[in-house]
Amino acid sequence: MSTLDKVTVDLIVVLGTSTMPIHQVMRLSRGAIIELDATEADEVKILANNMPIASGVVLVDRNRIAVEVKQMLPRSPATR
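and the corresponding structure tokens:
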């Protein structure tokens, strides 16, 4: 088990996405608001090292934000 303690995994939680022309991206500044194609009630995608592994929902409790895993995605034969 001590070998696993040294393994790091990048986790990404994706609530939504947005597409915009590069000229709009270049004009973004601090405080800019980017509309997403999702709402706070939608499921989020959970990625490990950029590979989808699960879906879940966002939980907000006062000033803490968390993600509850609702479904693990099946692994492809190539990743086993």
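(Above: one complete record from the training split.) The longest strand covers residues 51-61.
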